[in-house]
Amino acid sequence: MSAGRRTTLVLVRHGETAWNAEGRVQGQTDVPLNEVGRAQAQALAPVLAAERIDAIYSSDLLRVRETAQPTAGVLGLAVSLDAGLRERHYGMFETLTYVECRERFPVEFERFRQKEPGFDFGSGESLQTFYARALATVAAIAARHAGETVLVFTHGGVLEMLYREATARGLRSARDFAIPNAAINRFEFADGRWQLRAWAECAHLDAALDDLRD
To answer: Is residue 73 part of a domain?
Structure first.
């Protein structure tokens, strides 16, 4: 990206799923939106359609694609799917509730809770690897659209990594910020640096879950 050419990124977490409501770990398991999530996706469309958007990207997982569809339809833009925007892979934890994870895998759950950077759930993705993947994916999108405004539909974990990078919080500090379903978040990217402009805009929503765990 040319020096000084700033990309504006509008990032949206997918709408609610039944697994969000149950406190169940989704990760890269492909789960659709529930009725609440579909309504949230519809509520996003008129808000985002009022903005100048040059391109739309989405994780290739169903819950994110379903969230993007109403807005893309109103804007008349194609959605570019990018597997790099997927949620972290939670290995042995996926499909279980957080309560079940703690009961069945107490040692592993504590490593997860302590945010051990190299812990990968046995067959999943470590925090270090996920952080590098999330940042590289969104930075590549920003570089592709220097000077433009890009709408990105993704997952709570990806948003958390961007927030931590932009606010220099590191990976192991407590999460003291909400990441609601279907909220709008705004960043700018230029010369390899992230700036957070707005976080968790929810005025378009009746209610939104923040079901993620530290």
So the answer is: yes
